Structures are given as structure tokens and as C-alpha cells.
Request: fold
Amino acid sequence: MAFQRAAKKDEIPAGEIREFQVGDKTVAVAHVDDKFFAINGICLHQGGPLGEGLLTGTTVSCPWHGWEYNVTTGKLTQDPAHGVACYKVEVRGDEIFVDIG
Reply:
């Protein structure tokens, strides 16, 4: 599948994460060190909104029960054998595009 527009860069302040609907997916886009990363926005535990979580470095904590994910890989920090989908990101000018594949 082709890249789809997710957001404008200024919608996601540095050091924060936001939730967007991209196609039929809920995607959490994080802004870390002038780079953008996108993961599936639904927590594996009970479906919490990762895009509303607290981002600390490259780790986002689900706001419902605290499950932590690395936004660069989608992997659970507590058990890297499991995680959510991680999507390719392209920045084109002031817009962010995500390939939800």
C-alpha cells in the first residue's frame, strides 16, 4: 500500500505523541529528536490509546494500564518478543506520511 498523509509536523510537538486515523488504522505518531515514528495506536493489553500516552524518550506508556512500547520498533519494553505494528514514515515538506501497508 502507498504512503498516506497522517498529519502536519506542527501537530506533534517535539517529545510528544499523538493519535491519528490513517486509512482504517489508528496510528500513534511520535516526535523524537527531530524524527517521526509511527506505531499501531491500540495497546495489546486492553485496547488503550497509545497516542494519548506519556512519551519518555522513545518509550510510550499506555494511559490505561502503563504497558510500555518502544516507538521506534513497536516492541513491548517488558517483553520484546511482542509488540504492535511499526510503520514506515516519510516527511514531505511540513507533512507526515505513513505506510500502513
Remarks:
- DSSP finds no helices and nine strands in the chain.
- The chain has a mean pLDDT of 97.
- Residues 17-92 form a domain with the Rieske Iron-sulfur Protein fold (CATH 2.102.10.10).
- The CA atoms of residues 46 and 64 lie 8 Å apart.
